[in-house]
Design a protein that fits this description.
Elements (H helix, E strand, L loop, with lengths): L1 H19 L4 E3 L2 E4 L3 H12 L4 E5 L25 H13 L11 H7 L8 E2 L4 E2 L4 H15 L2 E4 L9 E4 L2 E6 L5 E3 L2 E4 L5 H5 L4 E3 L4 H4 L8 E3 H4 L12 E3 L2 E6 L3 E2 L20 E4 L5 E3 L12 H9 L5 H4 L1 E5 L3 E5 L15 H24 L5 H7 L3 E3 L19 E3 L7 H4 L10 E5 L3 E3 L3 E4 L5 E4 L2 E3 L4 E4 L13 E2 L8 H7 L2 H20 L9 H10 L10
Parallel strand pairs: 1-9, 2-3, 2-10, 3-6, 10-28, 15-24
Antiparallel strand pairs: 4-5, 7-8, 8-9, 11-21, 12-25, 13-14, 16-19, 17-20, 18-19, 22-27, 23-26, 24-25
Length: about 550
């Protein structure tokens, strides 16, 4: 009784303080933190299940990386993407049926040039399309949220020092930097970072487990010789890692560690590289020329320059991925900064802002370097010089993407951990309570560079292992009940590092978000915890909403 009175008095004091500061106390049934594609699907799903829903987005724009440049969607198995995610991709398809939206090329010309890329980009019988321009995706996301009656708040970030009000194992409310307080019956953390999950006291991990943790083969440190990974047609190429070639006393090039992080298979707290997925165009009527960025640091690209010099036949497509998008645009990937992002997951907002700016400087600097450095083959320089930032995208952000591509940050550790035994071809484990289907390869970008005791350059962390189709467990998106009974986590899910490399595709996040939103609404309806919600009842509702399962995928 004393504890309840103390909590009640604390809430009264909190409300009085908010009123004094001009802040608001907002109440709903389901609070979704994070306007990522998963968060958008979760919010819409909960709302269409009859619940009042607020979507609280820390940035100015909704859509996560799908409205910030990741628009050549990694959808290797479109037949397994159902529910509201499928509806989104069908709306993309319908938008591009209109000839007037093709301003720089025709629909036929676009799909002809992208025929062998982006997993064909569309499926006409299903009326789905998964290649699009960023502003188009944002517009459709906004339409879907409005039609569902979701209330959206932008630029609202958790007050990190006292973000979560919790009683026993239930979240009561969230505090924001603005002073605003949000209370709800159910909460969904749909961020890429897992900030709400972490501050709610949920168990999680950052980095890689050891292979021994879950009996895996592809976890932990994964060192490989740079000479083999970046071999030329003539064979392996040796790249000197020192500032002054041949002189170890001169120090190492940027982002190269002076020793291995451990033996292969050993655990550590490092994460795979981040980058900006930005958009370029070669339409002369829409492009801004590639210019030297204000914070240009040529030393950042010395390793790239030496690699180009050692391989004069290197191509632009081997230096960066350029997925074709409608209207003569491309989605640029692989402007990675291995080793620069280790502080992101646990960092505060100031640190993240600095890291985001550093990654932006790196992305723009790499463009300038590849167009201007004489060691880059002339064919590469000439081809890339035809591109520039599109004037009709990201108009309020200097035509550059809004958000950094956070490939992996925190990962929850719950009662069911997805592992490579679920995801790999030949895997021996299949979840019986699936709420989404994964099928992408077990993929990880570089975690870092290092030199061995002999001074040879190594790359750590690269993975690209063959997958199978597999069920993603409902238990992997909910914490242990003893930790929290009214929280779902459809992005930073309970997964080992290798399995997450397969799961972390935006269409799959969207499907998991849809399932999380429906589960939240149903748990309220039944007055139960998310953990005690009967799976068969949830599955039946999800099937009615168009979700697919391993035994029903088309």
């Amino acid at each position: 009784m004393i504890a309840r009175l103390t909590l009640a008095w604390s809430l009264v004091l909190c409300l009085l303080a908010l009123a004094a500061r001009g802040a608001e106390s907002r109440v709903c049934d389901v609070l979704v933190y994070g306007g990522t594609p998963a968060g958008i699907m979760a919010a819409i799903s909960a709302a269409e299940n009859g619940r009042t829903v607020m979507l609280v987005e820390p940035y100015r724009h909704v859509g996560g990386v799908m409205t910030s440049g990741l628009c050549a969607t990694d959808m290797n198995s479109h037949s397994r993407i159902g529910g509201r995610a499928r509806l989104f991709f069908q709306r993309i398809y319908q938008y591009y049926q209109d000839p007037t939206v093709w301003r720089s090329e025709s629909r036929e010309a676009y799909f002809a040039r992208s025929a062998n890329r982006v997993f064909t980009g569309k499926n006409d019988p299903f009326r789905m399309q998964w290649v699009f321009e960023p502003r188009v995706a944002e517009s459709i996301f906004e339409d879907m949220l409005r039609e569902a009656g979701v209330t959206v708040y932008r630029g609202e970030r958790l007050e990190l020092s006292q973000a979560v009000e919790k009683q026993a194992n239930r979240i009561q409310g969230l505090r924001m930097e603005s002073g605003n307080r949000y209370s709800a019956k159910m909460f969904i953390d749909a961020t890429y970072d897992g900030d709400l999950m972490a501050r709610a006291g949920i168990r999680y991990i950052v980095g890689r487990e050891s292979n021994e943790t879950y009996g895996e083969q592809f976890n932990g440190v994964r060192g490989k010789r740079y000479a083999e990974l970046y071999a030329a047609s003539s064979g392996p190429i040796q790249i000197d890692p020192f500032l002054s070639p041949g002189n170890p006393a001169s120090g190492l090039l940027p982002f190269i560690a002076s020793a291995p992080p451990g033996v292969n298979g050993q655990a550590d707290q490092r994460v795979q590289a981040y980058c900006f997925r930005y958009t370029l165009t070669n339409d002369p009527n829409n492009r801004r020329p590639i210019e030297k960025p204000a914070n240009y640091n040529p030393r950042w690209f010395e390793l790239l320059g030496r690699t180009c010099a050692a391989n004069p036949n290197i191509t632009l497509r081997s230096l960066m991925s350029m997925g074709p998008l409608p209207n003569r645009k491309v989605d640029v990937n692989v402007s990675n900064m291995p080793g620069a992002n280790y502080g992101w997951a646990e960092g505060d907002y100031n640190l993240r802002a600095k890291l985001m700016q550093q990654h932006k400087d790196f992305a723009l600097g790499k463009l300038y370097f590849l167009v201007n450095d004489p060691r880059v083959p002339a064919a590469v320089r000439d081809e890339l010089a035809q591109y520039g930032l599109p004037r009709d995208e990201f108009a309020d952000n200097d035509n550059f993407s809004y958000q950094l591509y956070v490939r992996e940050a925190r990962r929850m550790v719950s009662d069911y951990v997805m592992t490579e035994h679920n995801a790999l071809r030949g895997g021996t484990r299949q979840a019986e309570d699936g709420i989404a289907i994964g099928s992408y390869m077990v993929d990880s970008h570089q975690v870092g560079y290092y030199v061995d005791p002999q001074g040879e350059l190594y790359v750590d962390g690269s993975l690209g292992e063959k997958p199978r189709a597999y069920a993603i467990s409902y238990r992997s998106i909910v914490p242990s009940e003893s930790q929290c009974s009214n929280l779902l986590v459809p992005v930073c899910i309970s997964s080992s590092h290798p399995a997450y490399g397969s799961i972390r595709m935006e269409p799959v996040f969207m499907v998991m978000g849809h399932s999380a939103g429906t589960a939240a609404a149903m748990a309220i309806d039944r007055n139960t915890s998310v953990q005690q919600l009967p799976y068969e009842t949830l599955r039946q509702r999800l099937a009615e909403e168009g979700q697919f399962f391993m035994d029903s995928a088309k």
